[in-house]
Amino acid sequence: MALPRPHRFDVYIAAGGLLGGLLLVGIGLGTRASSDPMTLFDGPWPVLVPLTVLAGCELLRRTAPRAALLIATVAICADLTTQGSIASVLMFTDVVYAAVLYGPLASARRIQWITGLLTVAGTLAPFAVWREPEALLIGVVVGVVAYGPAATGWIVRNHRDAAEAARLRAEQTALLAEIDRSQAVTAERARMARELHDMVANHLSAIAIHSTAALSIDEPATSRQALTVIRENSVAGLAEMRRLIGILRDAGGATEPAVSPTLDGLAALVDGARANGLDVRLDSDGHGGVPAPVELAAYRIVQESLTNALKHACPGRVTVALGRRDGVLDVRVTSPYGRRDGPRAPGSGAGLAGMRERAALLGGTFRAGPQGALWAVRATLPVPEGVSE
């Protein structure tokens, strides 16, 4: 398998090290004299072999750091048998540094241990053999050439990993913030959609039904009565729309309308349904002290149920029942169910979904469906403990 292409910076290092070594060889400057006992190959030209190999290792410092270190170790040992070159030593230290910085984590730790042990051994062993203070300099040289670059690479690696971890945390934080923002926008849009539907659908349904009746029945009295109901619902719907627009324009960040409907307004809501032609009975056994979110949800569920009864129910009694017991507010609306004769307003199905969402947001339950000859809507909305009646 072909090795990846060397990094451009590594090519510069290799070329600079090789050219610097050639310059030193050209002027005859080495690290040891030809009379040194370790110099097995006299003359300046044998230095070129380890120098060239180390320059080649520099090309592999990122792409294959472990292989580069193994080859460079052999080359620097070979350099010890020649007059030596400071360029070779410097390139070896860079290869050690790169092996710790770019190599696998396990290899980086192992290199630190090995170079540390070599430094200790290079300090103690010569001193134990020769008993000369100058022997300690061998350990210093080993530390500078081997352990120093390894330790530096380890420090830089830790800083790099910490910076990368911080960058990833910042990206995750930004991503989570964007998700939270999107969810908040979606939740707010869903809330406003429910408010718009519940506030306006009742009035528009009454307008649709009574306008259909006025158009289909050629009786002036009936048409006048239908137009009266249409006007009343138009005015009420316009007021609700203005209130909703005021909520949207409010810069105060209120999460609910400034004047939310309460359960005390159910009587007026039922009276409005009667004016629209429904035979409605309200049965409530007490709901005092209910929190505002529960009151709003219960009111809207009753309002939407009456709207659905106006659009779809057969002639007959519609019953609205509220009761608070066992820590929940129980809301029930029943209406005659079956085939309906007469004008009918179209439905979209959003009303049932909105009622179900309102109950779910409060941790309650919602059911709607036929029960014999009735269409029954039931919602149970939890009332937090500590809220007195």
Question: Can you identify the CATH superfamily of the largest domain?
Answer: Histidine kinase-like ATPase, C-terminal domain
Oligomer: single chain
Structurally, the number of domains stands at: 2
User: What is the name of the CATH class of the largest domain?
Assistant: Alpha Beta
The helical percent reads: 55-70%
Q: What spatial form do the alpha-carbon principal axes imply?
A: rod-shaped
Strand order of the largest sheet: 1-2-3-5-4
Distance between the termini: 79 Å
Low-confidence stretches: 253-258
CATH topology of the largest domain: Heat Shock Protein 90
Query: Percent of residues in beta strands?
Result: 5-15%
**What Rg is obtained from the alpha carbons, in whole angstroms?**
43 Å
Kindly name the structural category: alpha+beta
- The count of DSSP E runs of length 2 or more, i.e. the number of strands, is 5
> Main sheet?
5 strands, mixed
CATH architecture of the largest domain: 2-Layer Sandwich
The H-and-E topology, N to C, reads as: HHHHHHHHEHEEHEE
Structure description:
- This protein is α+β, with helices and mostly antiparallel strands and 389 residues long.
- The protein is 62% helix and 10% strand.
- The protein has a five-stranded mixed beta sheet with strand order 1-2-3-5-4, with helices on one face.
- The relative contact order is 0.06.
- Residues 253-258 have low confidence and may be disordered.
